């Protein structure tokens, strides 16, 4: 996070700019919480947010579905 | 992190697999014949049962989004960050080890036939990479110890020196005495849909059920549509219940104490790693792939000995807001002689003298002596089934 006090040395990390005012607001908000830094807070929020971006689930072909249903019936899982 | 709530809006569809797409790498038809024709001229390596199970789990989507054994980048990312290099949560390295002399003969870019324990061609590995690794680092990061008494560390010490990486395609499933209980994620997802379940809680187990397990399962089931009881079948440590005993005991419990339309059981053919917190996340990912929206995480989940703090396997979920499956945490629970039911520290005001703990060791000791555990600890039907086995424990 640009403007941050922490120095990010791990080459697997990169820098993103956010307004300093927002940075300060986050810094205040995370005091006394589980977050050790503004960066760790932002990473968590972004991961949480991105994981909500759900697209359609895989759809089975009719043939596949029938085949699976037959097996489930044979094994007693469905009637 | 999303939490279960009574007012939660019900999802209209089955949960997405980890990474968004269910992996399926099963060779059929011409592609299968082609590989089988070429198999004799291809280099091959023989796998142990645990690696065969890994191959099958990759190919059937249990380990989605993995398409094969991990390469160097993912391996190190998982060790250091508990995520794949794509940033997706993943905590246990899925790797294939080989002798150095064997690996020297294999060229990246070529196909390698993977043989099962009977010497049959089980899968083909499209070798992309081979690399060395530090066993101590692997043990320390995954198991938080290098103590050889830890079963996971002991296994790493026995591992060969080179890791082979690349996508795998399954040629044939290995025969299993428990095939009748084996469902792929594609099958469980359709099963849950057919049952009309929108929310499903997964229960991971490597034990026969006692009343405490039943309490946890039914408490969770109160808030979701169905429960998926998913015993781990495969290599376990000495003294654990045998696989056939676990399955028979659960069959009996479900038959007598669960609604057929609310509970299903299928196995997960995989070795236990005993990696505690890391393995709890791994177990959650697997159940998400099976179509579970929730997973039960109890005290010392996937732990062994005293290597992990009792609730480390729950605390670790804080680091994974993007896991996509909701953990349901259970702390201690016990039978209270005053309440006359299973309770926990939040629901029972009575002193420790009134508590009967669900001690696996105590129950085991009674069974070994041929004594029936009291009905407050184990359902009589379940105890009877276990006692029918001459030796219910792994040696």
The poorly predicted ranges of chain A are 1-10
Derived structural class of chain B:
alpha/beta
Percent helix of chain A? 40-55%
**What percentage of the residues of chain A does DSSP assign to strands (E)?**
under 5%
How many β-strand runs of chain B? Answer: 16
Would you write up a description of this structure?
The complex is a heterodimer of chains A (79) and B (395). Chain A is elongated and about 60 Å long. Chain A has helices spanning 20-29, 38-51, 62-74. Chain A has 79 residues and is mostly helical. Chain A has 3 helices and no strands. Chain B has 395 residues and is an alpha/beta fold. Chain B is built from 13 helices and 16 strands. Chain B has helices at residues 29-38, 49-59, 72-81, 100-104, 135-143, 151-158, 185-194, 211-221, 243-257, 276-290, 312-315, 360-368, 380-388; strands spanning 44-46, 68-69, 96-98, 111-115, 121-126, 129-132, 162-170, 200-205, 226-233, 263-265, 268-269, 294-297, 326-329, 333-336, 341-344, 355-357. In chain B, the strands form 3 sheets. In chain B, strands 1, 2, 3, 4, 5, 6 and 7 form a 7-stranded mixed beta sheet that branches. In chain B, strands 8, 9, 10, 11, 12 and 13 form a 6-stranded parallel beta sheet that branches. In chain B, strands 15-14-16 form a 3-stranded antiparallel beta sheet, covered by helices on one side. The two termini of chain B are 41 Å apart. The model of chain B is unreliable at 1-9 (pLDDT under 50). At the A-B interface, helix 2 and helix 3 of A face helix 7 of B.
């Amino acid at each position: 996070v640009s403007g941050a006090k922490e120095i990010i040395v791990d080459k697997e990390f990169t820098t993103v700019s956010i307004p300093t005012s927002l940075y300060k607001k986050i810094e205040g908000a995370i005091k006394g919480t589980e977050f050790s830094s503004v960066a760790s807070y932002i990473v968590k929020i972004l991961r949480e947010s991105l994981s909500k971006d759900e697209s359609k689930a895989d759809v089975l072909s009719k043939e596949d579905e029938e085949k699976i249903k037959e097996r489930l019936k044979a094994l007693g899982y469905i009637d | 992190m999303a939490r279960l709530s009574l007012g939660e809006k019900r999802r209209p569809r089955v949960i997405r697999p980890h990474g968004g797409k269910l992996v399926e790498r099963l060779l059929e038809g011409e592609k299968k014949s082609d590989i089988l024709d070429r198999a004799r001229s291809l280099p091959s390596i023989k796998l142990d049962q645990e690696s065969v199970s890994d191959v099958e789990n990759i190919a059937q989507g249990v380990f989605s989004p993995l398409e094969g054994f991990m390469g160097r980048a993912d391996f190190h990312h998982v060790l250091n960050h508990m995520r794949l290099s794509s940033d997706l949560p993943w905590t246990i390295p899925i790797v294939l080890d080989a002798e150095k002399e064997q690996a020297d003969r294999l060229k990246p870019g070529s196909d390698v036939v993977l043989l099962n324990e009977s010497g049959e061609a089980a899968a083909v590995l499209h070798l992309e990479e081979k690399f060395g690794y530090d066993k101590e680092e692997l043990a320390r990061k995954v198991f938080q110890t290098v103590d050889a008494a830890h079963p996971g560390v002991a296994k790493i010490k026995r591992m060969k020196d080179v890791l082979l990486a690349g996508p795998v395609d399954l040629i044939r499933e290995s025969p299993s005495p428990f095939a009748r209980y084996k469902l792929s994620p594609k099958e469980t997802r359709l099963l849950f849909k057919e049952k009309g379940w929108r929310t499903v809680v997964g229960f991971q187990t490597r034990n026969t059920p006692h009343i405490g397990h039943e309490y946890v399962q039914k408490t969770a089931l109160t808030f979701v549509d169905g429960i998926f009881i998913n015993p781990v079948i495969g290599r376990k440590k000495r003294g654990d219940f045998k696989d056939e005993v676990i399955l028979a005991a659960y069959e009996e419990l479900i038959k007598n104490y669960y609604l057929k339309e609310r509970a299903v059981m299928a196995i997960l053919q995989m070795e236990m790693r005993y990696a505690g917190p890391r393995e709890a996340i791994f177990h959650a990912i697997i159940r998400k792939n099976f179509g579970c929206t929730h997973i039960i995480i109890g005290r010392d989940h996937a732990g062994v000995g005293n290597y992990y703090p009792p609730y480390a396997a729950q605390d670790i979920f804080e680091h994974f807001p993007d896991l996509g499956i909701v953990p349901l945490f259970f702390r201690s629970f016990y039978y209270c002689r005053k309440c006359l039911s299973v309770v926990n520290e939040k629901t029972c005001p009575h002193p420790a003298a009134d508590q009967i703990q669900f001690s696996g060791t105590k129950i085991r000791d009674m069974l070994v002596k041929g004594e029936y555990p009291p009905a407050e600890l184990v359902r009589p039907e379940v105890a009877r089934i276990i006692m029918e086995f001459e030796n219910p424990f792994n040696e």
